[in-house]
Amino acid sequence: MSVFSKTTPYLMMTALIVAGGLACRKPAPAPAPAATTAPVAAPDAASASTQKADDGQAAQAAAEEATRKAAAAKEAEYRQAAEAALKDVHFDFDKADVRASDKPVLVGIAAFLKAYPQASLVIDGNCDERGTVEYNLALGEHRAHAAMAYLVDLGVPSGRLSTTSYGKEKPVCSESTESCWGQNRRAHFTLK
What we know:
CATH class of the domain at 89-191: Alpha Beta
Number of strands: 4
Helix content: 40-55%
């Protein structure tokens, strides 16, 4: 027997194994196409329009914020002016006439109402603890009307004013002294 005949079965077997292995192998993936980069183009009309819209929205939001802050500042100014102007006026015992010493307070209230045409007031008439409930309610009403009439004489439209009477039901002082009673005989002003 020759060497060739002894090695032939081995060679053939090796060839079959190699061929079988090659046949079972997965093919290599195809190379990815080379990426092409387009030159950077100038912004087109659509992106320019989008940018303008974004700028417009930002400007609108800023304008709305500025308007909100301005309105809040005006409201704070209005409240401060009201607090400064709306002081009580006081009355003598068993009287509903505006005292000369309280007329400047009413002039200040009228000036506030003229400066702020959106303002409307409720005028509360109050009394001290002496007298009956019915009598003090009527006297409180007369006091509120006297303050209202004085404001109307100063040029405040009556439609911006209303009155109510609490009689002796809302005292600011509870001692039974002339000083305390004097504090309770008043017209009190509140914003509607």
